[in-house]
Amino acid sequence: MSGTVGSAGDGNHHHDVIIVGARCAGATTAMLLARLGHRVLLVDRATFPSDTISTHLIHPPGLAALDRWGLLERVVATGCPPIDTYAFDLGPFAIVGSPAGEGFEVSYAPRRTVLDKILVDAAAESGAQVREGFTVEEILFDGEMVTGIRGHGKDGSTSVDHARIVVGADGLHSSVARATGAVGYAEKPKINAYYYTYWAGLPMHGMFEAYDRGDCAVAAWPTNKDLTIVICGWSMRDFEARRGDIEGNCHATLARAPGLGERVAKATRAERFVGMAVPNYFRKPYGPGWILVGDAGYLKDPITAQGIQDAFRDAERCARALDDGFAGRRSFDEAMRAAQEARDAQVTSMYEFTAEFATMEPPPPEMQQLLLAVSQSPSARDEFVRVTAGVTPPEEFFGHRQERMSRHQTPDTA
């Protein structure tokens, strides 16, 4: 597969690309490839609108992508309130600032029932064939080359479809990753378990609030229909002891964040609790006839809520790489290797920062001193918030400040 993409037997392909999974990564990849003129089939077992477990927070880099694609106005029009301030209560002090970046002053957190429907509709409008309520039973191979899918619709009708490339955009339990034996690397175990629900009568006034209490954390932010998502998190080492009474333990966690807890006590729970605990990994995202995008290829703890904008960036990278391969500008291997390297270079520092942040353990004294200093500077507070929003790379923010602190603590011998 080092030459042009799917060069053997192209006449038998009904599609250039089949994409398995029609949410943030899959629908956007389908939309972008269809806009480039490629024949795309997008399948998902869900019918839209439908919900899925998600923090559904989109920081400014994700909004910039939606704006590039002409979809941001649709998201804003759903009445999802803007979030212009992030507040991190670390116990002894708090860091409060703006996530502004890439031309956007705010973030949004649309429900996945809203966002995914917008993206699936955009893929269809762009020319992709969308097949909802379709379950993939088998990934098809010719030797080591992936050639298509076999599956069935909700009415039981079966279908066999072939393509030059099959894309797995089906998340953690990706059928494409499983069938191809996609190799993982830089893996970390599950760090935290999170449970969340939605509350009515809990106004946030444009705030994202997070409280770190060492052995637990809680966060809240506004979403559609005047609801607020409230998430409680506990270390995996404590999860077994807590899982028997999720609601009781969520309220106990909220009691340790009095300002938020008192407001929640006056609100009304609107939905049931749902939970998640995810491993942290990279997977090699390509091989003969197949690609992985979004969570199927790279996943991390949701504490920094990077998943949606990571999926958007990955979709753009993979669409460009595939277009290069189809046009013969580069071989499939060259294009996808470059896409993998670009992905890893962009997200690795946030991957490590997120894993460290998720431990909820007290930072070493030097880091405590740095964060305290950050909390006392308006500009530094904004810069820290931009790190958590994925606007500023962690190494850029922390590296500069640690160098500064070292200079201030070391006698000048010049």
Quickly count the domains. 3
Strand content: 15-25%
Give the helix level as a range of percent.
Answer: 25-40%
Structural class: alpha+beta
CATH architecture identity of the largest domain = 3-Layer(bba) Sandwich
Query: How many angstroms separate the termini?
Result: 59 Å
User: How many β-strands, per DSSP?
Assistant: 19
Mean pLDDT: 93
CATH superfamily of the largest domain: FAD/NAD(P)-binding domain
Organism: Streptomyces formicae
Protein name: FAD-dependent monooxygenase
Domain FAD-binding: 16-345
GO molecular function, one term: monooxygenase activity
Summarize the structure.
By secondary structure, the chain is an alpha+beta fold. It has helices at residues 24-35, 60-68, 72-76, 112-125, 175-180, 236-242, 246-254, 258-265, 307-327, 332-358, 365-375, 378-388, 394-409; strands at residues 15-20, 40-43, 85-89, 94-97, 129-131, 134-142, 145-153, 158-168, 184-188, 192-200, 207-212, 216-222, 227-235, 268-269, 274-276, 280-283, 286-287, 290-292, 298-299. The chain has 13 helices and 19 strands.
Describe this structure in words.
This protein has helices at 24-35, 60-68, 72-76, 112-125, 175-180, 236-242, 246-254, 258-265, 307-327, 332-358, 365-375, 378-388, 394-409; strands spanning 15-20, 40-43, 85-89, 94-97, 129-131, 134-142, 145-153, 158-168, 184-188, 192-200, 207-212, 216-222, 227-235, 268-269, 274-276, 280-283, 286-287, 290-292, 298-299. By secondary structure, the chain is of the alpha+beta class. Strands 1, 2, 5, 6, 7, 8, 17 and 18 form an 8-stranded mixed beta sheet that branches. β1, α1 (24-35) and β2 (40-43) form a beta-alpha-beta unit. α1 (24-35) packs parallel to α4. It is globular, with a radius of gyration of 22 Å. It starts with 14 loop residues before the first strand and ends in a 5-residue tail after the last helix.
